[in-house]
Amino acid sequence: MTPTLVRQHLPRTGHGPRVDRRARARDWSEIQERMLVPLYEAVYERLDVGSGARLLGLGCGSGLALLMAASRGAAVTGVDTSSDRLAVARERLLPAGRDPHARADARIVDGSPGDTVRGGTADTAASGTGTAGGDDPAYTVVTAFEPIGCLAGDADGLSEQLAEAVPLTGHGAAVVLAGWGPPERCATASVLRVATRLAEPLRGTGTWRPAHRDDLEDVARRAGLRPDGSGRVACPFGYADVDSAVRGLLSTGLFDPAIAATDRIQVDKEIAEALHPYERQDGTVWMPNVFRYLIARTP
Fold first, then answer.
1. CB of 58 within 8 A of CB of 144?
2. Residue 257: what pLDDT?
3. Which residues contact 72 (CB under 8 A, 6 or more apart)?
């Protein structure tokens, strides 16, 4: 089964029980994260990521994309602010974890890209001790695989991360940005519209919007990057059943404003109804999607 979506950590307000962040992180890592594996593979193949590459993953989440790069021989550093997802990433990537692809040069940082060189308690090196210093070699690849262009304001957050990340790279380093494809080619767009409709009472909370054609180019230009190619990748969202689909989609955080405006029961119900057209006779759910990536180069 193919598989991710976008992650946004919005404050929990409104009705219903508090969001269980640990359960959501499990749903993300076990159900949703793998949805963008075809995107990761396409980018790594195009850039020939392998031994000798030093990769910085922005918004690395629970680390699946990092793990795939590490399995190709790259030295990887992941940065995020979700402690629950990072706990999974550490299990996957650090030597104390159980994954056979863990590498001694993998690093997981709870914080911003600048924390990879500022050090401090937010920075967890693969060895479990020490931090990165200013003498570390420059990153050759920066990835931002969390798709932008579906939430109002999500590009601003990525721009802030790039402002810290770009100075850590060498000349001509590849920076990869990802986003949703055209809504007419993304079946999941019809389900995500539920989030916008239910969250209507809470305007300005970062609800879903259709992707714009130049979202990625706009971010690259603002960061002072030079576009150097792009591509589209089919990333169908496949789930074992409707319940798994609902849990996976909720784990993205895209429905948090809808939950705040209504309640969790109402959101669950309306997502399930929106999934009916994509439910197959065997009970599985299948939604074809296309995602886009842009490769840009640092000055």
1. yes
2. 84
3. 44, 49, 50, 51, 53
Is the entire prediction scored with pTM above 0.90?
no
259-272 CB burial, b ≥16 within 10 A, e <16: bbbbbbeebbebbb
- Give the pair of three-digit tokens for residue 152: 């109002």
Specify the amino acid at residue 64. L
**Tokens coding 145:** 């695989």
Bridge partners (DSSP) of residue 174 are 141, 297
pLDDT surpassing 80 at residue 2: no
How far is 107 from 127, CA to CA, in rounded Å?
8
Fold assignment, 21-297 = Rossmann fold (3.40.50)
